[in-house]
Amino acid sequence: MTELQMGAIESRFADIIWENEPISSTELARRSEAALGWKRTTSFTVLKRLCNKGIFQNEKGQVTSLLSRADFYAMQSEKFVEETFEGSLPAFLAAFTSRKKLTAAEVAQLRRMIDEYRED
User: Could you tell me which of 32, 73, 79, 34 has the C-alpha nearest to residue 55?
Assistant: First the structure.
C-alpha cells in the first residue's frame, strides 16, 4: 500500500467524501466544484489518487471509504509520534504541553483515557 498521507486540499476533498458517503462520483464532482472550485476532471484525478492509496474506493460510480476519517488521522498521529518523538507518547505530550497548558477538563479526559487503555 502507498504511504497514507494527504495534503490540505486532498484532505478537504476527503472530508466531502467522509461527510456524504456513500456518494456517487458525479455528485462528488459537483460538490467539489462548489466547495473547491475544481473541474470534474480534477475531482476524478484526485479521487483516483486517493483510491490508489487505499483510502477510498470507487465501485461502479459509488464512492465509499476504506478507512474512516478517525482511522486515517489516528494512523497519521501514530506516524508523527513515531517519527518525531521516537514513538514516545510522553515525549510528545511534554513537548505539546510546554507551549499550551491543558485545561482541567482536558487533564480529566486524558486520565480517563489512560485508565481505559492501561496495560495491567
Answer: 73
Assess whether pLDDT exceeds 50 at residue 9.
Answer: yes
Which is nearest to 44 in space by CA: 56, 86, 103? 56
1: amino acid identity, one letter: M
- Segment 61-92, tens digit of pLDDT: 999 999 999 999 999 999 999 999 999 999 99
d(CA 28, CA 61): 10
CB atoms within 10 A of CB 75: 13
d(CA 66, CA 53): 10
Of 81, 90, 67, 79, which Cα lies nearest the Cα of 11? 67
- Residue 67 is classified by DSSP as S
SS3 label, residue 2? coil
CB 56 within 8 A of CB 14: yes
Residue 75 sits at φ, ψ, to 5 deg, of: -65, -40
